[in-house]
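Predicting holo structure, iron/sulfur cluster bound.
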Amino acid sequence: MAFGFLRSVNLKAIENIQSLGIPNLIQHLGGWSPFPAVTINTVITPESLPHLAEMVPIAQAAGVDSVSYQHLMFSDCSSHDEAALDVEQLLADIPRLKQQARDAGLPVTFYPRMSESKLRVYYQGSEDELNRKGMFPWYMVQVDMLGNVTPCRGFVVDNVKTKTGSFGEVWNSRRFRDYRNELVRLGVFPDCGRCCHRQY
Ligand code: SF4
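Done. Tokens:
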């Protein structure tokens, strides 16, 4: 596995974060590595479902820090084909996969987190049966390799190259606050769909 590429991506991300006015990022981390822990993430699809158990030995061989399984994101909630994913098979597999990862000494995550009953609704139910709630833009921001600052959905609130203020000013800017206020008003945006950051 090519971790050299990951390292250069992270160096670029660190550079962008420092451009936001947090110049002593590495110093802030104390003795911690500025490079993040590496997780192998697998999206659960009808095609990957029979192969999920193969990810643990792959993760072990690659020497990563943890594994995660991500429920499929899809946008057209109410017309999603019920037969697309065998949810009962997935529910039976989840405890086995957790045990397998534990036995291998690897932390494992399934996300977004939800109960069994909510998982059935997630894959087979309608939009009306899900919570209309999202908190992501209050605690997270992404800075991409182009320097775009975005909460999610590709909505760019600023760019580290063109911004005029500090990170605090970007975070509390009119544009960012309007985005959050609109989310409060709507609960979720029409295109949030089964976003992995939504609170189900
Ligand atoms: S649920 Fe919607 S608002 Fe929340 S993170 Fe996902 S796309 Fe953004």
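The first strand starts at residue 39 and ends at 44.
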